[in-house]
Each structure stands twice: as structure tokens, then as C-alpha cells.
Amino acid sequence: xxxxxxxxxxxxxxxxxxxxxxxxxECALRQKVLREPLGLDLYAEDLEAERAQLHFGxxxxxxxxxxxxxxxxxxxxxxxxxMAVCSDYQRCGLGTMLIREVEQQMLAKKVxxxxxxxxxxxxxxxxxxxxxxxxxxxxxxxxPHLRMEKGL
Length: 152
Description:
The chain is of the alpha+beta class. The protein has 3 helices and 8 strands. The protein has helices at 21-35, 94-108, 123-128; strands spanning 11-16, 54-60, 63-72, 77-85, 113-119, 132-133, 138-140, 143-151. The longest helix is centred in the N-terminal third of the chain and has 15 residues, at 21-35. The radius of gyration is 15 Å and the shape is globular. The two termini are 21 Å apart.
């Protein structure tokens, strides 16, 4: 799944259980990639509320290198949030692998639509995966985002 010129990696996708050691590593990755650059603290958020959400990770040699959190809604849709890829692994195809695997997991749960809030710089990535902008630009965690969705 690596892009041309990227080193081959032996990465595996797996669910992450809330409260596990893997979950702690997932939170650390989200903190480093998504919150620290904005001067925010993930641990100031109510992480206990994430117990009812689904967590997924990509692991290489036992270490989490990419993750995403998913909320399955009652209307047959799901929302991907907090997707992060370790900086050393960005642009190697792991983001694509993660989204494709999450989509397969959601199809198995009879989800028919995925929505997400994409940072502006990530919109082209999601466009390549079939997601389309469905709303006006808005601020989330202090930076511009667009709502995107994809039918499964």
C-alpha cells in the first residue's frame, strides 16, 4: 500500500479497546499529531465519553502509527474523527489504508454513509478517497474545517 518510493512496511489494522494500553498509545499519538501543534491538550477533553465510540489503529511492530475514532449514529451513518498518522509514516499510504479499513468495518455494521470534519489541508486527501464537501467552512479546534461525506 505504500506510495512509489516509500519503504515497504509490515503494518496491520486492528480495533483498539478503550482503556487498553493500545488506547493509551492512540491518545498519545492524537495528542502529538492533532493537539500539540495547536497548543491544545487532548487530555483536557472528556476521554471517558469515548468509551462508546469505536477506535481503530494501524500498528507496526507493536507500535501504533495511525489511528481513527468512529461514532456510529442511529441513522445508519458514522462519523470519523481524530484521524492521525505519525509524522514518520505520513505520505506512505497509511492514511488511505486506515480509511479503507474503517469503511469495511462500517459496511459490516450496515453503515451506509460516513461523514467527517476535514481540516482544509486534508480535503484533497479525502477527495481522492471519494469524500465530497457538503457544507460551508467552519472553525473547529480553532482552525478551518469542511464537512465531508461519502456513501458506502
